[in-house]
Specification:
By secondary structure, this protein is an alpha+beta fold. The chain is built from 8 helices and 8 strands, in the order H-H-E-E-E-E-E-E-E-H-H-H-H-E-H-H. It is rod-shaped and about 200 Å long. The relative contact order is 0.06.
């Protein structure tokens, strides 16, 4: 309990005490009993009650989270030019009063969720995109009163700034900015850009109307049922196309693998054939060299010796008539 509240409590207690004393005086007077001392007590309590009431009405304690606008009977527009900040202040009793503003951050939410909005089941923003699609946007605006311009805010809006300024301006800006984008841009590539444009425009409007934009939160974007079904079908088709492309690529890889195997086998056969041909050449060259060596080593005597060796194994003697050739002519050894 602050001091101004305490003084008002004391003043209220004094007035109750004064009423009690007056009642006692009437009772004693009706019974013809003396009440001289009670009159003095009543006067003292009356003065104390008036004093406490006056002081209590003049002292105002402002909480740290608040500031106060002083409405006065003095001055041109009936408002003090400067607000009262946190602490104990004095105002002219019964000629001035205070209207309190919270300087804490405030959040206004526009959503389709019933537990996040007040007074309606669906407060989301309906937007028609650049390509003609209907989308529903959930958003929150976080703002505060500008303490330096609170008097101007009171002059313009009193306490209707949320319904009269924050809500309609936020919804209008969101619609205007979102309508500049296509539906696929909003949900993917340009969502951050759209959010930034909305924030900048709201900052400008709030500043011009004595508020401070703390943050803008683009919470959710929903499609119409028809478009959501179309998106789902598109995703299914894309997945099927990706699967088909994967199968085609797999077949290409299998064909390439088979081609590589066949190429390897062909290369192996060529190498084998080349090896066999080379071996034949080497063998032929060896045989030629052997034949050459054999030819160089043959003499007539050697031929006749080999001829005799190859006769029938049972022949031990050969009769040769004089001055006649062999019965079997010897091979000609002349070159």
């Amino acid at each position: 309990m602050n001091i101004s509240s305490l003084l008002q409590f004391v003043a209220s207690f004094a007035w109750i005490g004064l009423i009690g004393v007056i009642v006692v005086m009437f009772i004693r007077t009706s019974r013809n009993q003396p009440s001289k001392g009670l009159g003095t007590v009543a006067i003292v309590i009356l003065v104390l009650a008036i004093l406490m009431t006056t002081v209590g009405a003049g002292l105002v304690f402002i909480e740290p989270d608040d500031l106060a606008i002083v409405v006065t009977v003095f001055g041109g527009d009936g408002i003090r030019p400067e607000p009262l900040t946190a602490g104990l202040h004095w105002i002219i009793p019964f000629a001035e009063r205070v209207e309190r503003y919270s300087i804490l951050n405030q959040t206004y939410t526009m959503s389709s969720a019933a537990d996040e909005v007040v007074g309606t089941s669906d407060d989301s923003i309906q937007v028609r995109t650049k390509d003609g699609q209907q989308v529903y946007i959930d958003a929150s605006v976080i703002y505060a009163i500008d303490p330096l311009r609170a008097v101007d805010l009171y002059r313009t809006w009193r306490f209707t700034y949320e319904d009269g300024l924050v809500r309609p301006q936020a919804r209008g800006v969101i619609r205007d900015v979102a309508s500049q984008f296509g539906v696929e841009e909003i949900v993917s590539s340009k969502r951050a850009e759209m959010e930034q444009l909305i924030t900048e425009e709201l900052e400008r409007i709030f500043t011009a109307n004595n508020l401070v934009l703390r943050d803008f939160v683009l919470r959710n974007i929903r499609f119409s049922d028809e478009y959501a079904a179309a998106v789902e079908q598109k995703q299914i088709a894309e997945q099927q196309a990706q699967q088909a492309a994967f199968v085609v690529e797999q077949k290409k890889q299998e064909a390439e693998q088979a081609r590589q195997i066949a190429q390897g086998q062909a290369d192996a056969a060529v190498i084998a054939a080349q090896g066999a041909a080379q071996a034949r050449i080497i063998q032929a060259e060896a045989e030629a060299q052997a034949n050459q060596l054999i030819a160089q080593s043959i003499t007539p005597a050697l031929v006749q010796y080999q001829y005799v060796l190859n006769l029938a194994p049972g022949v031990q003697t050969i009769f040769v008539p004089s001055e006649n050739q062999f019965i079997l002519p010897l091979p000609n050894t002349n070159p």
